From TrEMBL:
CDD domains listed in its UniProt record: pepsin_A_like_plant
Protein name (record): Peptidase A1 domain-containing protein
Organism of this sequence: Gossypium mustelinum
Single GO molecular function: aspartic-type endopeptidase activity
Residue span of region Disordered: 449-474
Homology family: Belongs to the peptidase A1 family.
Stretches assigned to the Peptidase A1 domain: 93-431
């Protein structure tokens, strides 16, 4: 999440305290781990791989219709979701959740170190400007506040449950608890579910300035999304994350069980030791040689913690010094250079190639060994990051955790690795793979939309949006079609009578956001649907052209479908329900559907 690599929770709701009371020291809340500050301590604070836009917001801290089936031993469905953004450029990965009826979309940082999911509330005057509009409870017909009770902290009027989170880098989030329907996107086998979440009334620090809307808590605790879904009996007690590799970003996430690949490497995950996901690291090997360390070095304090919200990896001092010495010995022929930030003593090397696929020819392999000699092979992209100022240079992404004896493994360690948090069986699995091809490698195929069907209108044929080889949506147009018109059906959460006098302004804003002339956007239909409005628009070629380029059409459709079009709050939230292209000659039409 947008937090210093791991956060320190000081204020928690009683739901989480109930978990802590079962631990050996119930009188205090467990501190969140805090790696040492350095330029790499970018905000470590969620699905097929989807690279970030080059213009996506970056924040730096100094200090993811055939669906993936559940585990073969379980009848539970799962939620297959996309991950967005980039670990090192953005400092986090996000996924998309839809809250309410009609759904309101949010980009949430996936964080295994947090136990609550929260988004900015419409009433929040101390919240930053984020990727999506604030959540508006009044626009959701299914929203209910969580009323004050014995199992929660209450507001000063003892009317509603509240939550508070304070983080080690001095950012914080606080607000009220609400309950509403959570939707997981059109790749999800799991139907929308009611869940409790935080509706923020105040943000500070990096939570205020980050581009992402909020946090999706995947840690252990009663307010965690995973715990709530498991408690309802709708998913098995497991979830998986798959982060993209160096220079790619994005990834995939699954809430619920999946069939583990036969060669997945597992480590025992102690569910009692702490609320974090702790694994049993025993040894580290560099270039096939074991570091001369007592295994207990990885068992200090909280042991070895795996945290999706942490960017890099942090070792206790003895382990880091041994690792550093082994790496330097293997790379004594490489030129060592200064790091990108003069304030920090990064260990960086200049190489002759900037091709990630060539790194293994220069840098040694590293192995992490768990109990029963289960070995996780780390390629160079799992312990290096690119030097931001020198082409072809790389720096170590593993650091000393100051004097803290905890071993902290962040997202860099598991790039291009499917990580399964099998909480039911107290183990975490690792499977090296190309996360951009995850579904294919798990033998999952199919499209995102309904199967093709005849429209019954002449030569028109409905053609679904498909999944490209990298897992991202792919907008297909048949044959050598020259596009003469794009038809867009949109649902807006704004009341029809309110929107009617502003409909022309709406088309003007859409034209501006889509980078087309206002004269190219035509209103075809405008109707009411309950408290929402349905709008049908047509995008036509400019006056200087007889057709719309396919790439332009794909860009228009994808920007709307993926909610990259930003409209003023007065128009509410929107959903692209259906798109259709019509040829300027006698070609087939292509149609796509977007399900909430």
């Amino acid at each position: 999440m947008a937090r210093a690599l791991v956060n320190l929770a000081v204020g928690t709701v009683v739901f989480f305290l109930l978990f802590l009371l079962s631990q050996s020291n119930p009188s205090t809340s467990p501190p969140r781990l805090l790696p040492p500050p350095h330029h790499g301590a970018r905000p470590a604070m969620v699905l097929p791989l989807f690279p970030s836009s080059k213009n996506s917001s970056r924040t730096f801290l100094h200090s993811h219709r055939h669906l993936l089936r559940s585990d073969s031993h379980s009848s539970h469905p799962n939620a297959r979701m996309r991950l967005y953004d980039d670990l090192l450029l953005n400092g986090y990965y996000t996924t998309r959740l839809w809250i309410g009826t009609p759904p309101q979309q949010f980009a949430l940082i996936v964080d295994t170190g947090s136990t609550v999911t929260y988004v900015p509330c419409a009433t929040c005057e101390q919240c930053g400007r984020h990727q999506d509009p604030k959540f508006q409870p009044d626009l959701s017909s299914t929203y209910q506040p969580v009323k004050c009770n014995l199992d929660c902290n209450c507001d000063s009027d003892r009317v509603q449950c509240i939550y508070e989170r304070q983080y080690a880098e001095m950012s914080s989030s606080s607000g009220v608890l609400g309950e509403d329907i959570i939707s997981f996107g059109n790749q999800s086998e799991l139907v929308p579910q009611r869940a409790v979440f935080g509706c923020e009334n105040e943000e500070t620090g990096d939570l205020y300035s980050q581009h992402a809307d909020g946090i999706m808590g995947l840690g252990r605790g009663d307010l965690s999304v995973v715990d709530q879904l498991v408690e309802k009996g709708v998913i098995s007690d497991s979830f998986s994350l798959c982060y993209g590799g160096m220079d790619i970003g994005g990834g995939a996430m699954v809430l619920g069980g999946i069939s583990a690949p036969s060669d997945m490497v597992f480590s025992y995950a102690d569910p009692v030791r702490s609320p974090y996901y702790s694994i049993g690291l025993k040894e580290i090997h560099v270039a096939g040689k074991q570091l001369s360390l007592n295994p207990s070095v990885f068992d200090g304090k909280y042991g070895t913690v795996l945290d999706s919200g942490t960017t890099y990896a942090y070792l206790p001092e003895p382990a880091f010094l041994a690792f550093k010495e082994a790496i330097l010995k293997e790379l004594n022929g490489l030129k060592q250079i200064r790091g990108p930030d003069p304030n920090y003593s990064d260990i960086c090397f200049s190489t002759a190639s900037s091709d990630v696929s060539e790194l293994s020819k220069t840098f040694p392999t590293v192995e992490m060994v768990f109990g029963h000699q289960q070995k996780l092979l780390l390629s160079p992209e799992n312990y290096l990051f690119r030097h931001s100022k020198v082409h072809g240079a790389y720096c170590l992404g593993i650091f000393q955790n100051e004097k803290d004896p905890t071993t902290l493994l962040g997202g860099i360690i598991v790039r291009n690795t499917l990580v399964t948090y099998d909480r039911e069986h107290s183990k975490i699995g690792f499977w090296k793979t190309n996360c951009s091809e995850l579904w294919e490698r798990l033998h999952i195929t199919g499209a995102l939309s309904p199967t093709p069907s005849s429209s019954g209108k002449g030569n028109s044929t409905e053609s679904p949006t498909t999944t490209a080889s990298d897992g991202s949506p792919h907008y297909d147009f048949p044959g050598k079609i020259q596009i003469g018109k794009i038809i867009l059906d949109m649902s807006l959460s704004t009341n029809h009578s309110y929107l009617k006098p502003q409909i022309n302004k709406l088309t003007e804003f859409i034209a501006k956001e889509l980078d087309v002339n206002a004269s190219q956007v035509h209103l075809l239909n405008f109707t009411s649907e309950g408290n929402s409005s349905l709008v049908r628009l047509a995008i036509v070629p400019s006056d200087s052209s007889t057709y719309i380029y396919k790439e332009t059409a794909r860009n228009i459709i994808s920007r709307l479908a993926e909610h990259r079009v930003k409209l003023p709050d007065t128009f509410g939230n929107y959903q692209l329900v259906q798109w259709k292209v019509e040829p300027s000659t006698k070609h087939l039409a292509a149609v796509g559907y977007y399900l909430m």
